[in-house]
Every structure is written in C-alpha cells, then in structure tokens.
From TrEMBL:
Residues 134-196 form the Polymerase/histidinol phosphatase N-terminal domain. PANTHER family: EXONUCLEASE (PTHR42924), POLYMERASE_HISTIDINOL PHOSPHATASE N-TERMINAL DOMAIN-CONTAINING PROTEIN (PTHR42924:SF3). One of its GO terms (molecular function) is 5'-3' RNA exonuclease activity. This is CehA/McbA family metallohydrolase. It comes from Candidatus Pullilachnospira stercoravium. InterPro entries: PHP_domain (IPR052018), Pol/His_phosphatase_N (IPR003141), Pol/histidinol_Pase-like (IPR016195). It comes from the Bacteria.
Length: 437
C-alpha cells in the first residue's frame, strides 16, 4: 500500500492567543511511520519607500501526543517532523505508530487580530512485508561478552543486519540502555542460565522479577510462565549441548521456539537437535525454530549472525519481528551472505498452515553450482542439485497427503561440519494438530 495523506485545519482566533488545545486525527492500523507538516501565515510583508519589510504576525507551536502518551514538541522551530519506532525528529521520542486517536497540540503563542488558519498534513506510511536478517542470541559486557551495546549495533550495521536480540546471562539491566538506531533494531532480552539448561527470553525488557535461581521443575516452570505473561518468547537454547544442554526434559515446560542451530555448539550437536526437531514435526507438532550466533567477543571464527535468522515481518519494529519469529515466518542460513528463500506467488510464508489441496513454492536466490536443495516432508526427501550459479530457482509442489513440507540447502557441507547452508521453517498442512504437546 502506498503512503497517503490525512489533512485537517484549525482556525485560531485572537482570543485564543496564549492557550494550548489539541487537534485530533485518527491513524489506521499497520502504519510504520508518520510525517506531520503544518503551515500558516507566519509573516506579513510590506513595501515602504521601495524597501521590503517582513514582520512576524503569527507564531504557532507544535507538540504531539500518541495513543500511548506524550511524544514530544518542537515549539515553532520546525514545521515538518517524522515519527517512527526507529527514530524520530529531534525533540520527539521514537515511538510505535499505533492505531487510534492522535493529537497535535496547537500552541497559540502569537495570533494576529484577524486570526490564523493552521493547515496540517499527516502522511501515513503503511507497513509492508519485508525480509529482515539478524541474530537472536548474543552477549555484551552485561554478562560475559566484551562488546558494549553501541559496539554491537555498529558491528550489526557493518554486516548489513536489520536486528539483534541482546541476551545476556541472567541479566536484563542492559535493556534500559538500549536506544533506537536508524538501521538496526535492538531488541531487549535475556538468557536465563541454569546448570540444567539455558533459555532465551526474547522481547521483554524485564522477563522476571525475582532472582533467576530455581531448584525444582516447578520453580523453573514458574519462571517460564512469568516470562511468557510479560510477552517474552521462550526459546530452548542449544538443548543438546553436552556442557549446557536442556536437562530438565524437552517436554517439561511450555516454550515458544527451539534454537536448532547455535554458533558456539559443534555441528554434530546441532545436527542432533535438527534430527530431534524433524521427529517432532513427523509427530504432528508445530515448533518454530531459530538460529543464534551466541556471540561473546571478537575472535577468529566467531561473528554476529553466524548463523543468521531471516524473518518475514510486517516491519522492522520489535513487535513485528518477534511476531514473525513466534509464527515461524522465516529461515536460517549460515550467515547473512547465505542463500535466500523468497515468498512464492501463492503468498504463503514459512510457518503458515496451508490448505490440503494447495501448492506451495520455494523460491531460492543466490544459489551456487553444486548446491543441493532438499525438500523434506513426513513422507521423505527430494533432492535437486544445481549445476551452475542460479540467481533464482523455483520449486513448486503439491502438499496433499503431507503433514508439512520444508526446505534445506546444502553448500559444501564439509566446511560447516555437515550443516545445511539454509534451513526453513515448514509449511504445515491443514488438519495437522496444533501446538506443542
């Protein structure tokens, strides 16, 4: 959808000079950015003795309130401002563009005797589905990493990432210091770290109140329940790791995702987790997956977004990225330079449940000669080898009789311990049982 304008005006009388009053307008759902402009006759020009004079006859100030509260003001210095979650004009807080009633606060500082007509134009930029790449698991100086939040943001920008989720061990103090960046969305989180396993708690600035320590399965479940109620996505991190795997039992707690690919975990262990996930899919379960670098410090062979989680989201806001992650609307690659899976002409996203009579398309980009595509379902696996570099390659398949269909791409697997270069979330087929049993 293209950007569109909302226009309105307000006549300010001389008697209203020295007062403030709201002028309301309505923003529809799914807006990503607003631009607010206003104009009025601020100056009066006269000519005397061949000379041109200009005097200020009206001064109108601007402030803005969103449905969630006060956003900021610029006085009369600027007549054009922009607002978004990624950053706003000076004097205005970054803000999510929520549906509902907004207000411009008109400040009638100086009004001429004949009054002043103020015209407002609000340009609404709707959200559009986009593909965003980033990292769902990394650490800073807030725990055992050696990079600050700003250094992480700088590295992410240099690598062309769109988002990172900060997950320090048992610590969320850093979340209050996260600030918006124009090109990288910094999402708060924590990694709940226990001797019996680690879990990402993503998207909540404070996923739990009391100390992280628990000693019983009941206390562990209470911690997970608290994080879930606070809006955190709960991820079982590197669950098969021999040193810090999930020893509570994979069915001992309700969770939202599983990290099947961890950058700090040996490939055979990641492959074991991938095999476990495949068995859950065959059993009819729907478990979204993620891949995280587990980045701690700059060292050889370790970098952000290795692996890289790609998400199809309505925007680059935290809320939309987390929603996409929870729905499984994405795929994982060995890094941001890996192959890409595009949306097919049917419009289905990975993680969607499709009708039994549907066709789904896997549209691959950046494939190289020798790459092997694997289309995997509960009924088996089909492999296709690329003979040469292919800028785009499409596989369309019927899903009738299947529980799910997903894709992997193998590229020189010996270089990454046998891991695929790409792992997609599945297309699920309607009639399959929902949820995690």
């Amino acid at each position: 959808m293209k950007a569109f304008e909302i226009t309105f005006e307000r006549m300010v009388e001389k008697g209203e000079e020295g007062t403030y009053f709201p002028v309301e307008f309505t923003v529809p759902q799914d807006a990503e950015k607003l631009e607010i402009c206003y104009e009025y006759a601020r100056y009066e020009e006269t000519v005397k003795d061949g000379r041109r004079f200009r005097r200020e006859k009206n001064i109108v100030d601007l402030a803005v309130c969103a449905p969630q509260g006060y956003i900021g003001s610029s006085g009369s210095d600027r007549t054009r401002i922009q607002l978004s979650a990624y950053g706003s004009s000076q004097g205005f807080a970054p803000c999510e563009i929520r549906r509902g009633t907004w207000q411009v606060i008109l400040g009638a500082y100086k009004i001429s005797p004949e009054g002043c007509l103020v015209r407002y134009t609000v340009t609404v930029y709707p959200k559009e589905l986009g593909l965003y790449k980033g990292d769902t698991h990394m650490h800073t100086v807030g725990s055992d990493g050696n990079c600050t939040l700003d250094e992480i943001a700088w590295m992410a920008e240099k690598q062309g990432l769109d988002y990172v989720i900060v997950t320090d061990h048992n610590n969320y103090a850093h979340n209050s210091q996260i600030r918006p960046h124009a090109s990288v969305t910094m999402i708060p989180g924590a990694e709940w770290t226990h001797y019996k396993g680690h879990a990402g708690m993503l998207g909540a600035a404070r996923p739990f109140d009391n100390p992280f320590c628990v000693n019983t399965p009941e206390e562990m479940r209470e911690k997970f329940d608290e994080a879930g109620k606070r809006g955190a996505l709960r991820v079982l991190n590197h669950p098969f790791c021999p040193n810090c795997g999930w020893r509570w039992g994979m069915d001992a707690v309700e969770y939202d995702l599983v990290e099947v690919w961890n950058g700090a975990t040996p490939a055979p262990v990641n492959l074991e987790c991938l095999s476990w996930w495949e068995e859950q899919l065959k059993a009819g379960k729907k478990i979204p997956i993620t891949g995280g670098s587990d980045f701690h410090r700059t060292e050889f062979g370790r970098m952000l977004a290795s692996p890289c989680t790609w998400l199809y989201a309505a925007s680059r806001t935290s809320a939309d990225l987390l929603d996409a992650l929870k729905r499984g609307h994405g795929f994982i690659t060995y890094g941001p330079e890996g192959p890409v899976l595009r949306v097919g002409p049917e419009g289905y996203l990975p993680g969607d449940t499709v009708p039994q009579d549907a066709e789904v398309s896997f549209v691959f980009e950046r494939l190289k000669g020798g790459d092997v595509i694997a289309l995997i379902s509960d009924q088996g696996e089909e492999r296709i080898t690329m003979e040469e570099f292919t800028s785009e390659y499409t596989c369309t398949r019927k899903v009738k009789g299947l529980k799910y269909l997903r894709a992997q791409v193998f590229r020189q697997p010996e270089l990454i311990g046998g891991m695929p270069a790409l792992i997609s979330n599945p297309f699920y087929v309607s009639g399959q049982e929902d949820g995690i049993d």
